[in-house]
Specification:
This protein is an all-alpha fold. It contains 14 helices and no strands. The protein has one domain: MFS general substrate transporter like domains (Growth Hormone, Chain: A), CATH 1.20.1250. Helix 2 runs antiparallel to helix 13, helix 7 packs antiparallel against helix 12 and helix 10 runs antiparallel to helix 11.
């Protein structure tokens, strides 16, 4: 089953476990920059609306779910990690260039959906690449380095966007630069990364807490976890009956509660993230200010992520996941309160910089703690199928979040969106508590029944007689 769930490492002994991991910095810079450029492009040069941002996210999330089935299957069949990475990163570069030179709203919807189709190719390949190229003892540090490269890349990409838009508001030209960064990662992978000698399957990812944690932090620039299906799901009435049977058997255990709480968290996160940039744009903040606010989120994650593993061991993942959820819900409530007052642009930037940074801290703590809880609960069970079910629910939450954001945009009430997101998180808190209690009950050692004291016979010595 791999290392115990408490052994997950979130800080390497040195920043880069192997030099070729630096190849992942440019692609993370490109995706982080694109994650901010895309809604700004819709709201600005393409004259779209908040509902158009939600519609683009809906297409992206649907494509992401479908593609995750396909790329997981292809990764197990062909096992060419470098080829998949080059295809992913080179494809991103081509799509960014296409959008930079032919900007229009329908094309943007299609490009974003194609990005969703390509994204799981690189996610599966990169996780399996590290799993195959590092030994059991090296993997915690290797995956920690991999996550640090994603955070560093994200900060670099957002800083690039900030300085670029500070001097010029040419978002289309910035897309060309981001395409160059994606292409740079493709070239770096081709030159620096050799195909591993041993070949594993996606199911192996489910057996290691570090790789599972890495999966849940994928696509940091888009702030969307890529669905993960280590066992290919089957459609039809048979799987549905098996799911119903599983739910009945597990109703008193913690897994359904974990899935439910995770669903609410993913729904709230997608609802908030899709609406946040349009909200910032609506209060009159410029592109450079919006990039600066997004930097605070990545900095918050980067500052806290190294300590999240140690905090999980000290506090326990159950307590930490609740504290992180509560902190994130307070952040959503604070942002909703900002919509009640008229504030000048400089003050709005400062307040949102702090609040979005706090949300980054909360998501880093939540991701580590919830991954450890999930890994702990699937040990000794059909981990591949259970993780696939969890991913399917996460994908459904992402789609639902985009749909609800688009629906609420009809009324133009950002305050209502942020309150719904905060309420969803607060609703998940008692569910996390119930999951913790259910786990403790399931794991508690069963005491053998105590023998009852024998009833004394009426004629036994020392027994008083009545009559």
């Amino acid at each position: 089953m791999g290392a115990p769930f408490t052994s997950v490492s979130t800080w390497p002994r040195r920043l880069v476990a192997r030099p070729w991991l630096l190849a992942f910095v440019p692609i993370n810079a490109a995706t982080a920059g694109f994650g901010v450029v895309l809604p700004l492009l819709i709201l600005g040069p393409l004259h779209g609306s908040w509902s158009d941002v939600a519609l683009a996210a809906l297409g992206f999330n649907l494509a992401l779910i479908v593609a995750s089935f396909i790329w997981g299957r292809l990764s197990d069949r062909y096992r060419r990690r470098r080829a998949f990475l080059i295809l992913n990163y080179g494809g991103f570069a081509a799509l960014y260039l296409l959008l930079a030179h032919l900007p229009n709203l329908p094309l943007l919807f299609g490009v974003y959906a194609l990005i969703g189709l390509l994204a799981p190719a690189g996610t599966s390949a990169s996780n399996l690449l590290i799993l195959e190229k590092f030994s059991e003892s090296e993997r915690p540090r290797a995956y920690a380095s991999f996550q640090e490269m994603s955070i560093v890349g994200s900060v670099v990409g957002l800083l690039l966007g900030f300085f670029w838009t500070l001097s010029s508001d040419t978002l289309l030209a910035l897309l060309t630069v981001l395409a160059g960064l994606a292409a740079l990662s493709a070239v770096a992978v081709a030159l620096l990364v050799a195909e591993p000698e041993r070949k594993l399957t996606t199911l192996q990812v489910a057996k290691h807490p570090e790789s599972l944690l890495s999966r849940s932090r994928a696509l940091i620039g888009f702030r969307v976890p890529v669905p993960f299906f280590p066992v290919r799901p089957h459609l039809g009435s048979g799987p549905l009956r098996r799911f119903v049977g599983w739910a009945r058997r597990e109703i008193h255990h913690e897994l359904p509660l974990i899935f439910g709480a995770g669903f609410l968290f993913n729904f709230a996160s997608n609802l908030f993230n899709i609406s946040y940039t349009p909200y910032l744009y609506s209060v009159g903040l410029g592109s450079s200010s919006i990039f600066l606010i997004n930097i605070s989120n990545s900095l918050g994650q980067g500052a806290v992520f190294p300590a999240s593993g140690r905090l999980s061991e000290q506090m326990g993942p159950d307590r930490l996941v609740q504290r992180a959820t509560y902190l994130r819900s307070l952040g959503y409530l604070a942002v909703s309160m900002l919509t009640l007052v008229a504030i000048v642009a400089g003050t709005a930037v400062g307040l949102n910089f702090v609040l979005f940074g706090v949300l980054g801290v909360a998501v880093a703590l939540y991701t580590t703690a919830s991954s450890l809880i999930l890994f702990r609960s699937v040990q000794g069970r059909e981990a591949g199928q259970l993780l696939g079910l969890n991913s399917a629910l996460g994908g459904l939450a992402a789609v639902l979040g985009a749909a609800v954001a688009g629906t609420l945009s009809v009324w133009g009430s950002y305050r209502l969106v942020f309150l719904v997101a905060a309420g969803s998180l607060l609703l998940s808190l008692p569910i996390w508590t119930a999951a913790s209690v259910a786990f403790q009950k399931r794991r508690a050692p069963r005491e053998p029944p105590r023998p009852s004291a024998p009833t004394p016979r009426a004629d036994a010595p020392g027994t008083a007689k009545t009559g």
